[in-house]
Design a protein that fits this description.
single chain, about 180 residues, alpha+beta, DNA Binding (I), subunit A, 2 domains, 3-stranded antiparallel beta sheet, 9 strands, about 20% helix, elongated
Length: about 180
């Protein structure tokens, strides 16, 4: 489904709506279209326009209540943080075929959280087994960490965008960048 990013009057991303809602806000003169989907043209009897990718509400000063600075922990986000690379041997692995490795194994009290999970290929994960990194004789290429957003961002959008890959037209308006360095 094609969706539109919504900015408040100050230009802060506050929501994601359907393209139909974005067109309605535009024609009601409550929003302006800042960016369009290049290859998605909407036709009706009265008009033909490109589907809005990003709109800005003209009078809405709504500010989200909860802001976050840490990216949500998910399988996809761990994969992105580790560049799709096994943190033991450096081999590239696909998103569908990588395994989580717990630096401190679950059987030793390790938890599934940013600072304890790395991308691992199946071979390295099997080799390490239920041992800690130091007892397995293996070395980490980079220690796990929680990626920080360089600016606080609305929590509802961070979790939504972290679960999906947003359209590239949104990049200029989503002003938070992920700091992937320790």
């Amino acid at each position: 489904m094609m969706e539109s990013l919504v900015l408040n009057a100050a230009g802060i991303p506050v929501s994601i709506v359907s393209w139909q809602r974005a067109v309605t806000l535009y024609y009601a003169e409550k929003a302006i279209i800042l960016s369009e989907y290049e290859n998605k043209i909407l036709h009706s009897i009265r008009f033909s326009i490109r589907a809005p990718a990003v709109i800005q509400c003209l009078k809405t000063h709504y500010m989200p209540r909860r802001f976050v600075r840490v990216l949500p922990f998910s399988r996809r986000n761990v994969y992105i943080r580790d560049n799709g690379q096994c943190m033991y041997c450096g081999k590239k692995v696909s998103l569908a075929n990588f395994t989580f490795d717990h630096v401190i194994p679950k059987c030793q009290g390790g938890k599934s959280e940013w600072n304890n999970v790395v991308v691992s290929c199946m071979r390295c994960n099997s080799r390490k087994g239920g041992r800690s990194v130091s007892h397995s004789g293996m070395n980490l290429l980079r220690h796990p960490f929680a990626p920080q957003l360089d600016k606080a961002a609305p929590a509802n959008l961070v979790s939504r965008i972290a679960a999906e890959i947003p359209h590239e037209s949104w990049e200029d308006y989503i002003y938070w960048n992920i700091i992937l360095e320790e």
